[in-house]
Write a structure and sequence with these properties.
single chain, 446 residues, alpha/beta, Four Helix Bundle (Hemerythrin (Met), subunit A), Rossmann fold, five-stranded parallel β-sheet, two-stranded antiparallel ribbon, 16 helices, 63% helix
């Protein structure tokens, strides 16, 4: 229900903003041609299909349902569409009606958003359509979305001919410089980097608020996304300055010493390589298949709400129960002490719930002294007999790689992972956060 309200709100905001500037003026005045009528019908049908998909997608042909992550990314597309539409309107100002151009009262608009896209308003429509389709996908909505985007593109092609006749050489030069949808001038490596940093800036700030909405401001390392946003903005400013200097001969506003650039590039490549190495391992371990017939499984604690497990902890308990149901000789160790803000130990909650699910109490051992993952593993292994004993660590997938590294650092090598579900969309944050945890562990700081 929450996502339906968000989707309908974004839909309404977009079209209200659009209508403020007079929809009739944008689509043209006077008697519309058959091409204009076809375009309007396609756009109206797409809008109707989007609303129907949001309100009751199950009733539409081919509805498949969408995961939470696609809904979040769909929201990002819609928000970006609204921002582009607003910026486009600010660039146009009072000269929205194409009729005024024909009367010679307005020149060709090439500033603001129009310096980066010849058709930013239509680009905003396309992004809105794609965003809503990601949120509530079905065959009917997809067909109308494709039809609407195609007819809008056809409008661009016909509009280009009219503008060429109206503005002549001025428009031809503008068309050579600014791309039809997004881009300015010839494609260069610097512009590719600029595009990547723009995407990073948009994603990081939107994802920061997503994490806060789901987990609150106390979510550990959530500031990473604000740091990435700030870094991306700095790089965007420097790249725009660099591109303007190269293409237009503009004077550089920011002169970076050569030695600083060398150090920065070495550090950037080094950190990027480490990040990729760690994240690949995190993802591989997230998807590993657990070994069967293990002697013990250690269920790592993950916080409580009163005397109930948090959602991540419940998923670990459920994963452990399902594993032990398949492997009747395996013993579970419920691991986790009582935190400062907890009324009972995590171990007692794990044991209570796994027994409530149907596991025999004799197959559950409690370790209720630990306060973090390192202690979880250390104290749990103290309850396991010495010898060639096979052990599985039950934790959410994003956490598994680091948990196994901790076990091996303590001298336990006959250890495997049993990954429980990673919850999204905050799961992206957890996966990225593991990089810092692994580095901290490697450096012996935690």
């Amino acid at each position: 229900m929450t996502y339906r309200i968000i989707a309908l709100s974004l839909f309404a905001i977009f079209y209200i903003i659009y209508l403020i500037k007079n929809i009739k003026a944008l689509w043209g005045t006077g008697k519309p041609s058959l091409k204009e009528i076809a375009m309007r019908v396609a756009c109206y049908c797409a809008a109707a299909a989007e609303i129907a998909s949001i309100v009751n997608g199950d009733a539409l042909l081919g509805y498949t349902g969408r995961g939470i992550l696609l809904k979040v990314f769909g929201i990002y597309f819609c928000i970006t569409a609204i921002c582009i539409l607003v910026l486009s309107m600010l660039s146009i100002g009072t000269e929205w009606n194409i009729k005024s151009k024909k009367a010679g009262r307005a020149g060709l608009i090439t500033k603001g958003m129009y310096a980066f896209s010849r058709n930013p308003v239509i680009l905003s429509f396309d992004l809105l359509y794609i965003g809503l389709l990601l949120m509530y996908f079905n065959v009917l909505c997809m067909l109308f979305t494709i039809l609407a985007i195609a007819t809008l593109h056809y409008r661009i092609l016909t509009e280009e001919g009219r503008l060429e006749k109206l503005y002549g050489e001025e428009y031809l030069q503008y068309r050579k410089t600014v791309h039809r949808y997004l881009g300015h001038g010839k494609l260069t490596f610097s512009k590719v980097k600029l595009f990547i940093y723009v995407i990073a800036a948009i994603f990081s700030i939107l994802y920061y608020f997503t994490c806060v909405a789901y987990a609150g401001f106390k979510l550990s390392f959530v500031w990473i996304w604000l740091l990435l946003f700030g870094f991306s903005i700095v790089r965007i400013v420097l790249l725009v300055d660099e591109i303007g200097h190269r293409e237009n001969g503009n004077k550089l506003k920011f002169r970076i010493p050569g030695w600083f650039k060398v150090i920065y590039r070495i550090l950037f490549v080094t950190v990027a390589a480490l990040f990729i190495f760690v994240e690949v391992n995190v993802i591989v371990y997230m998807n590993m298949a657990p070994k069967e017939n293990l002697d013990y499984v250690i269920v790592l604690g993950a916080g409580l709400k009163g005397d109930e497990p948090t959602r991540p902890l419940y998923l670990r308990i459920q994963k452990a129960y399902n594993y032990m149901k398949r492997n009747p000789d395996t013993i579970a160790i419920a691991s986790g002490g009582q935190g400062r803000d907890e009324i009972v130990s995590e171990a007692s909650v794990i044991a209570t719930h796994i027994i409530r699910m149907g596991l025999e109490p004799s197959r559950v051992i409690m370790e209720d002294k630990s306060t973090d993952t390192i202690e979880n593993i250390r104290y749990s292994f103290e309850k396991i007999p010495e010898g060639n004993v096979s052990v599985g660590l039950v934790t959410n997938g994003f956490h598994l790689y680091r948990a196994i590294l901790i076990a091996r650092s303590q001298g336990h090598y006959n250890v495997t992972g049993i990954p429980a579900q990673t919850l999204f969309p905050v799961g992206i944050h957890y996966v990225v956060r593991e990089f810092f945890g692994v580095i901290q562990l490697t450096l012996g700081l935690g």
